[in-house]
Amino acid sequence: MTPVSASTSASAFAAIKRIGVFGGAFDPPHAAHHALAQAALKSLALDQLRIVPTGQAWHKTRALTSPAHRLAMAQLAFADLPGVWVDPIEMERQGPSYTVDTLRALKQQFPQSELFLVMGADQARALTTWHEWQEVLRLAIICVAEREDLAGSSPPFVAPKAYESRFRRLLLPVMPVSATDIRDKIAKHGDIAPLVFESVARYIDHHHLYQTP
After folding, report:
1. What SS3 class is residue 96?
2. What backbone torsions phi and psi does residue 41 show, to the nearest 5 degrees?
3. Kind of pairing, strands 140-147 and 48-53?
4. For residues 40 and 118, is the Cβ–Cβ distance under 8 A?
5. How many Å apart are CA 38 and CA 36, to the nearest integer?
6. DSSP annotation string for 55-89
7. What is the rounded distance in angstroms from the CA atom of residue 32 to the CA atom of residue 21?
8. Fewer Cβ in 10 A, N or C end of the chain?
9. pLDDT by residue (tens digit) across 145-190?
10. In degrees rounded to 5, what are phi and psi of residue 26?
11. What would the CATH number be for the domain defined by 11-179?
12. Phi-psi category of 130—alpha, beta or left, where left has phi over 0 and alpha has psi -120 to 50?
């Protein structure tokens, strides 16, 4: 998961045509995050997928675990996926983390590349509340991950008609995993083994994370 450096040749930059961006708190990263990353790499034929842990989340009401811990856990969780790099760009930026700023920075670094912003259906439904959301749509194709909902319990995401061409769908199998549930299980001394990778579970235990509700 080595970043492209300033000394990288022009031909190497040109080879990176399709870049995925998958942001989130990753507090902690879990099996569903990993499955989504795999699906994005395969379905979108990405040359590179950047996992971007949130810095100062403008929309979160709770305090996030420290950036250093979330970055380390993300590096462990996605270490087995070729083409993935955990990018600390938002953690290194001062002030609130806005996706539009991350996309602008990537577009400046890779002006010839196409950007694909990966998100869940709930995030997609809230997209019009995001900071400079129309610029987000201009800079990146929005790739919405939707679970197979055989029971029809939730309506599918419908892209705004004026922007339909800027959206793609990523179908995923049902995987009822959430970071909130994992944190609750840890606080209650429950078993999280099926929900996170062993390396992440060991890290959480070693650093005594999420021990209290």
Report:
1. strand
2. -60, -45
3. unpaired
4. yes
5. 5
6. SEETT-SSPPPPHHHHHHHHHHHTTTSTTEEE--H
7. 16
8. C
9. 987 654 455 677 889 889 999 999 998 877 788 999 999 999 999 9
10. 50, 55
11. 3.40.50.620
12. beta
Whether residue 19 has pLDDT greater than 90: yes
Cα gap 133→129, rounded to integer Å: 7
What pLDDT is attached to residue 80? 97
CA 82 → CA 20, 181, 187, distances in Å? 13, 28, 33
* Backbone torsions φ then ψ of 110, nearest 5 degrees: -125, 70
CA distance 160 to 194: 37
CA dist., res. 162 & res. 54, Å (int): 29
Q: What strands lie across the sheet with 167-172, from one edge to the other?
A: 84-86, 48-53, 18-24, 114-120, 140-147, 167-172
Taking residues 95-100, report their average pLDDT.
90
CA atoms of 177 and 58, how far apart (whole Å): 24
Domain ranges of the chain: 11-179
37: Cβ contacts below 8 Å, ≥ 6 apart: 22, 49, 51, 78, 81, 84, 118
Q: 22 - beta bridge partners?
A: 51, 118
Q: Which residue has the tokens 């078993």?
A: 191
pLDDT at 14 over 70: no
Q: By the 8 A CB rule, do 180 and 155 touch?
A: no
Which whole-number Å values give the CA distances from 57 to 82, 93, 129, 188, 204, in the listed order? 28, 12, 14, 26, 21
Give the pair of three-digit tokens for residue 102: 């991350």
